[in-house]
Design a protein that fits this description.
The complex is a heterotetramer, with 2 copies of chain A (435 residues) and 2 copies of chain B (140 residues). Chain A is an alpha+beta fold. In chain A, 33% of the residues lie in helices and 27% in strands. Chain A has 14 helices and 22 strands. In chain A, the strands form 5 sheets. In chain A, strands 6-15-14-11-12-13-16-21-19 form a 9-stranded mixed beta sheet, with helices on both faces. In chain A, strands 3-2-1-4-5 form a 5-stranded parallel beta sheet, sandwiched between helices. With 140 residues, chain B is mostly beta strands. The chains are: A alpha+beta (435), B mainly beta (140).
Chain lengths: 435, 140, 140, 435
């Protein structure tokens, strides 16, 4: 096991990881930008080093500075959290070169799995269904032929794209030509790369993902699913486990397939398989996240398994001490992301409490929310034996939560939690007015 | 009443932790009051010492600070038994090497940004410095 | 005293963190006061309205408050169609019944503690009153 | 089920009960004294009524005012919390007379079980061991004869006593005479009643108690044990479950006996059987608490069962929906009571977070700790899979907890949690220098 870990992140996830380390008896090194010198993660860690200016590129994305600090401070491993360097194979390789353990998959896996085409090829071989689609199409004619085979509606997506930008929907054959040239133009102007590919358009759909833990010794376990259909412009707002759209039998089936797939691709670490779930109950594989997710906490509340600790243990070569049969999917857990509406300074914080209420945050009185980083202030997570009770608990907790001095989306979350579509469980990706 | 006197008295009150001071001398009298109650901001979660002094930024300075641009180990001299690059009182020219900050086996030379005289060396040989740690004061 | 002097002293107080400054020179005297940084109390958890106004307690009053000694329902009259015990402007004597507060089927008569004139009736017939709810103002 | 409940209490337990009600969809009525008008429980409840002056006798112990408020507000039931009216049979009877449900056992049970002699008689018949002792002894000679049978050392206790006052230890026969007359004198001067009784002195001993839930339908379940040996002058400071002094086999045995005993005495509600555990592993029954305990939370963290909700459901006649075999004693939970050292006003609060960390408190910025009520500010409870990890988690959480403006015992709790006797689990009632 490691005796000292550097946390290459900030905000609530840095706090979360530092706390996990303390509970494991592992010393912690925080790094921070000039904008974060008064931040909670800096105060909580055993050692803290300022590594650069407020811009992430100067600090939290500054690979050399972070590795150099880890070496100087005597850390053996680096936890990247989520975002920033967490999916950066170059950084993982640099860690290894400097004798540091990157807490995540090895750089070769990262490269292999970050190439969508390779990943889909790999997954197709495991028994999971991949969304039908093409590689880059060279002409409108080729797009038309492919669409014929896949079946309308289809989507044209930029190969170099991301974040939902530059996507065109094609409902029938006569729309192909115009859409193709518009998509190419947009792809060039947005990403400097005009190649586009075709994919089956699954609608209406829910975003359902499966949490995986896999160790070096060939053990892999699936910790259930999460429904993340509540998004605005591809940003998740609220997540729950288990998904109200998936019945126990379906869940058991897809979990088994997922474990099998992860074993086949020899993945090691914490990971997430993301699917689109259609009305007929088919799971269409979209992509794999090879890091901790923001919403990992709902899975922790449901299963009682600490994902951060297991990430660290797996990186240290420790085998999982539980197996699939130990995972009980009982009750219901919901997370509401509490985001800042704009910058501000925290004047007062009141956090709801009681059994199975958790608020993961970096807020302390005086915390300044600066424009440099994302708007996530904290995550309110509650668990209860039934979804109905969990909903009431979330409502009560949202009502009790007070964040004074920073505009937040608490009111919006309350409206979502009280929305009939949400309470009935009958919602999909269109909930927030998305396509 | 002279401003300098008021300043002097106020400083004294602060130093001695007084909340009131009244002085009657011949035909003049002065009374000063301050509240000691720590302002709310100071009860904030304590900032680790490594963060450095934030106040210096707002005070007027008669020198130029040379700060470390990276995390590393500060070396005052090019080799173990060599003389230090600079000492207090040395006149330095813009571009002149002042010290080395080593990170990942790389020796990063830190150079003077202005001509001047070294008035203070803020760190000691072999010390770990962070981004922004003050290394030298240079008086123009 | 010139405005510029006052400004100067005020600026000085702010800079030096003083809450009071009094200067007596020959035949002039100046006294300045300021309050420092907003006290922490104002960020307090909001108090529910039912709690009532706490400030009135500290203000000087020219009347005597009659408060409810228990939680119950306020009745202004002895029976449904009867006249109220008292109305605004009525002169009342110490010991005179002013109203009834009903709790657990018990009719608790609330009596005047002083002689005086009813200047205000603070509640309405049938209203639930708490311990400490103001019922009447009596002017002596 | 009830649609509205009045909470006849204040502080953290009132907040705890109100939150439980919100999660159950039950409306809440708070009552408060003039000293508590800005208190959190007042702000959280749906309705709040001031019922009297700051002295508990004028407010939280004012039976008529509380019942009258419940009737006026339209509450169907009253939850008494702990302390105040929670063990008051007269109040429970007054509730019933006024058509209100008292959330606790019925007044007849309360009277029966609050008489120590009757209770011990009842328990003796159930298979549990009761501490050997006498009823009131009429003379020194009678005391000597009884001590002969019980075996030295023995204790002389005032019949009217409580809180550990007026107790005398007798190690051998020649101490009986002096002790007897001293004890009588002290009992008269302390309690106005000179009768004393004899009890076997069990030393060294641990205080171990068992949590019970029993419904009207004859179901009874034991939710494991709690070790409360860490006391100062009979005040519990820190509690943990399971007790490190009890092995699994012993635990299973005593739990079974306890369930049997509770069924035999036909107890209904949440209750606690308190024992002294001697070095030989014998459980000696001391007394039964017929209400919620302060330390109920460690049991909740270990078992995942919400005791407050079940108290309410049981009072509403709902049968338990789980049985003994569903209760898994896995992992370890510890509670540290955070007490005020003196009065003060809260300037700033920072609460530790993360998985399985809970802080039940009534503190919000501006809260005034007044001299009228007890010193409990909050309860810090943590849970982890092993006792070692729970200890580390508690240390980290205590270090992170900041209560600014009110002197607390956080430092003392840290010293306890780091004490070798505590970390080894090898402690008893003498820990804090008690006899």
């Amino acid at each position: 096991m490691f005796s000292k870990i550097l946390i290459a992140n900030r905000g609530e996830i840095a706090v979360r990881i530092i706390r996990a380390c303390k509970e494991m008896g592992v010393a912690t090194v925080a790094v921070y930008s000039e904008a974060d010198k008064n931040a909670l993660h800096v105060a909580l860690a055993d050692q803290s080093y300022c590594i650069g200016g407020p811009e992430a590129s100067e600090s939290y994305l500054n690979e050399n500075q972070i590795i150099s600090t880890a070496i100087l401070a005597g850390a053996q491993a680096i936890h990247p959290g989520y975002g920033f360097l967490s999916e950066n194979a170059h950084f993982a390789r640099a860690c290894r070169k400097n004798g540091l353990v990157f807490i995540g998959p090895d750089p070769e896996s990262m490269e292999r799995l970050s190439d969508k085409a390779i990943l889909k090829e790999l997954i197709r071989g495991t028994g999971l269904s991949v969304i039908p689609g093409t590689k880059a199409v060279a002409s409108a004619e080729e797009a038309r032929r492919a669409a014929e085979i896949i079946g309308y509606p289809v989507m044209l997506k930029p190969c170099a794209g991301g974040g939902g930008r530059g996507i065109r929907l094609i409902r029938s054959e006569d729309e192909v030509n115009d859409a193709y040239y518009q998509a190419i133009g947009e792809a060039v102007s947005s990403f400097g790369d005009g190649s586009v590919y075709l994919e089956k358009y699954i609608f209406p759909a829910r975003h359902v993902e499966l949490q995986i833990l896999a160790d070096e010794h060939g053990n892999a376990v699936c910790l259930g699913d999460r429904d993340c259909s509540l998004q605005r412009r591809n940003q998740k707002l609220l997540e729950e486990t288990p998904s109200p759209a998936v019945d126990d039998e379906q869940r058991a089936q897809i979990m088994e397939l997922a474990v099998e797939a992860v074993k086949q691709i020899r993945y090691v670490g914490a990971g997430t398989l993301e699917f689109l779930l259609d009305r007929e109950g088919n799971f269409w594989f979209m992509e794999m996240n090879i890091r901790l997710q923001v919403e990992h906490c709902v899975t922790e509340m449901l299963t009682g398994i600490d994902l951060v600790k297991w990430q660290i243990r797996i990186a240290a070569g420790i085998p999982l001490d539980f197996s699939q049969k130990d995972i009980k999917i009982k009750g219901s857990a919901i997370e509401c992301r509490i985001n800042a509406g704009s910058c501000g300074t925290l004047k007062m914080l009141h956090v709801p409490g009681g059994p199975s209420v958790r608020f993961d945050t970096y807020l302390v009185v005086g915390t300044v929310v600066s424009p440099y980083y994302d708007s996530l202030l904290g995550k309110l997570i509650v668990y209860a034996k039934t979804r109905e009770e969990t909903l009431r608990k979330m409502r009560a907790s949202l009502c009790e939560l007070v964040i004074d001095g920073i505009p937040t989306n608490i009111e919006e979350q309350l409206r979502i939690v009280e929305d009939e579509r949400f309470t009935s469980g009958n919602y999909d990706l269109t909930f927030m007015g998305n396509r | 009443m002279k401003e300098t006197d008021i300043r002097k008295y106020a400083e004294l009150m602060k130093e001695l932790g007084l909340t009131g001071l009244e002085i009657t001398e011949e035909n003049s009298k002065i009374r000063l009051e301050r509240s000691v109650s720590v302002p709310a901001k100071e009860t904030v979660y304590s900032v680790p010492e490594s963060v450095g002094d934030t106040q210096t930024a707002s005070e007027p300075k008669d020198y130029i600070s040379v700060k470390s641009p990276l995390v590393g180990v500060f070396y005052a001299a090019p080799a173990e038994n060599a003389d230090p690059y600079v000492s207090i009182g040395d006149r330095v020219a813009k571009g002149q090497t002042l010290c080395i900050v080593e990170a990942m086996k790389l020796m990063n030379e830190i150079t003077a940004e202005v001509d001047g005289v070294i008035s203070e060396i803020c760190v000691t040989n072999g010390q770990i410095v962070e981004y922004g740690t003050e290394l030298f004061h240079i008086k123009r």
